[in-house]
């Protein structure tokens, strides 16, 4: 049993599926397949599992269910899930992606997490995939309490601000530092031109999420 299998709590019968789930398109050389097709399937399996979980446990209208689901399965949430099992260190990347920080790129890890879901689904069936997914989802109690555990802080901040239609949120890059392949970005989030939060990250998107998270916290909302 590999270290990754121990981390995810599932042992593959067909290890080729696991290898395919971990193979980024930049690594493909004709002898193997990238994880893009598995990602496509995994996205659907994830949506079904999360939808059923919310439908069975939350008595709220369709619009609310959709919003909660979108937060749970957004790229930032999937990136966080992937980091918990150190998925990046197991990825097969081409030299270009390797040299430009691909092992920690949000899109690559989020896609690989969906591919891993599909690999488990094909290898062991829906219940195995469901058991794996459920390890990462917040409890219904957390969701009902309104705790912001989903990771997509920009969306959450926008929903808070939209309660006052005249308010306007914007993000601006305050600076950046480091070499091209390992830059750190600094971003401010502004409400009507006034800074309400700041953050940094390895990409502008990551820095914006950090800034939004700080702003939400300063407003008195729980962010973890």
What is the 3D shape?
flat
**SSE pattern, N- to C-terminal:** HHHHHHHHHHEEEH
| CATH C-level class of the largest domain | Mainly Alpha
Would you report the number of β strands?
A: 3
Task: Please mark out the parts with pLDDT under 50 across 5 or more consecutive residues, or reply none.
Answer: none
CATH superfamily of the largest domain: Ribonuclease III domain
Q: Architecture of the largest domain, according to CATH?
A: Orthogonal Bundle
Any idea of the CATH topology of the largest domain? Answer: Ribonuclease iii, N-terminal Endonuclease Domain, Chain A
Bin the helical content: 40-55%
Give the amount of beta strand, in percent. Answer: 5-15%
User: Could you report the average pLDDT, rounded to the nearest whole number?
Assistant: 89
Give the strand line-up of the largest sheet.
1-2-3
Number of helices: 11
Distance between the termini: 33 Å
Oligomer: single chain
Number of domains: 2
Biggest sheet, open or closed, and with what strands and sense?
Answer: 3 strands, antiparallel
- Which structural class should the secondary elements be placed in? mainly alpha
How big is the Rg?
19 Å
Verbal overview:
With 224 residues, this protein is mainly α. The chain has two domains: 3-140, Orthogonal Bundle (Ribonuclease iii, N-terminal Endonuclease Domain, Chain A); 153-218, Double Stranded RNA Binding Domain. Helices cover 53% and strands 11% of the residues. The chain contains eleven helices and three strands; from the N terminus they run ααααααααααβββα. The chain has a three-stranded antiparallel beta sheet with strand order 1-2-3, covered by helices on one side. Strand 2 and strand 3 (194-201) form a beta hairpin. The longest helix has 22 residues, at 36-57. It starts with a helix and ends in a 6-residue tail after the last helix. The mean pLDDT is 89.
């Amino acid at each position: 049993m590999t270290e990754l299998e121990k981390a995810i709590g599932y042992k593959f019968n067909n290890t080729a599926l696991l290898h395919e789930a971990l193979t980024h398109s930049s690594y493909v050389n004709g002898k193997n397949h990238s994880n893009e097709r598995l990602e496509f399937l995994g996205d659907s399996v994830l949506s079904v599992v999360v939808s059923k979980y919310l439908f069975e446990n939350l008595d709220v209208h369709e619009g609310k269910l959709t919003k909660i689901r979108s937060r749970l399965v957004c790229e930032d949430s999937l990136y966080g899930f992937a980091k918990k099992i150190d998925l990046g260190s197991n990825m097969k990347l081409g030299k270009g992606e390797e040299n430009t920080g691909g092992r920690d790129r949000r899109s690559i890890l989020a896609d690989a997490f969906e591919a891993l879901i599909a690999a488990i689904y094909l290898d062991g069936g829906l219940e195995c995939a469901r058991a794996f997914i459920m390890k990462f989802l917040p409890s219904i109690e957390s969701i009902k309490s309104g705790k912001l555990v989903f990771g997509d802080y920009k969306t959450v901040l926008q929903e808070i601000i939209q309660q006052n239609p005249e308010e306007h949120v914007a993000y601006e890059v305050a600076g950046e530092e480091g070499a091209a392949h390992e830059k750190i970005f600094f971003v401010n989030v502004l409400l009507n031109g006034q800074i309400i939060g700041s953050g940094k990250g390895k990409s502008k998107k990551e820095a914006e999420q950090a800034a939004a998270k700080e702003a939400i916290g300063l407003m008195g909302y729980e962010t973890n």
